[in-house]
Design goal:
Order of helices and strands: EEHHEEHEHEH
Low-confidence stretches: none
Structural class: alpha/beta
Shape: globular
Largest sheet: 6 strands, mixed
Bound molecules: ligand AR6
Number of strands: 6
Length: 172
């Protein structure tokens, strides 16, 4: 069971599933969502149209089509509004919802982007701690799960996640 932090483009990652930081319409958008739809091809949008959207904090699974990944798990992160609107708990719920689908479908490897820290403006220092706590809890809980990768788009984001992982490790 391993956790890996890498810098890269999640649309190139070979895994049982990659996670999409979507919006509640599930009909594509900018950022990582746009990149995933472009790389997967129009069949992904066609399947998404059948899903009737996705509430914030929940997740839905589709096939991966032209991606190297077999599936896409679409989740909708919270829009940051200062932190008093339950954004941290909602972000944690996104990760829990993704892992519920990972468990249900028997997936062995999953790759995440940094959910909500782009267009949705969630501060990445806080988001990285939440993400890594949930990922470590899932790795400890799900015997089928062999590998979780977090794919950071910039060197600065990668270093923020590396610092968060070190901080969590020193907490024990
Ligand atoms: N691979 C990995 N990470 C990426 C990639 C990529 N190819 N492209 C961008 N990122 P964002 P959000 C990073 O804005 O904040 C969309 O329009 C990016 O640098 O994609 O959850 C949706 O449709 C950032 O660190 O997602 C929604 O409307 C992270 O992915 C809204 O944005 C997340 O940034 C969701 O906003």
């Amino acid at each position: 069971m391993t956790l890996e932090l890498i810098r890269g483009d999640i649309t190139r990652v070979d895994a049982d599933a990659i996670v999409n930081a979507a919006n509640s319409a599930l009909l594509g958008g900018g950022g990582v969502d746009g990149a995933i739809h472009r790389a997967a091809g129009p069949e992904l949008l066609a399947e998404c149209r059948l899903l009737n959207g996705c509430p914030t904090g929940q997740a839905k699974l589709t096939r991966g089509y032209r991606l190297p990944a077999r599936h896409v798990i679409h989740t909708v992160g919270p829009v940051w509004g200062g932190g008093a609107r339950g954004e941290e708990a909602t972000l944690a719920r996104c990760y829990k919802s993704v892992f519920a689908l990972v468990e249900q479908h028997g997936l062995r490897s999953v790759a995440f982007p940094s959910i909500s820290t782009g267009v949705y403006r969630f501060p990445i220092e806080r988001a990285s701690l939440i993400a890594l706590r949930e990922i470590q809890a899932a790795l400890g809980r799900l015997p089928q799960l062999e590998k979780v990768t977090v794919v950071l788009f910039s060197q600065a984001d990668l270093e923020t996640y590396q610092r968060a992982l070190a901080a969590l490790s020193s907490e024990g």
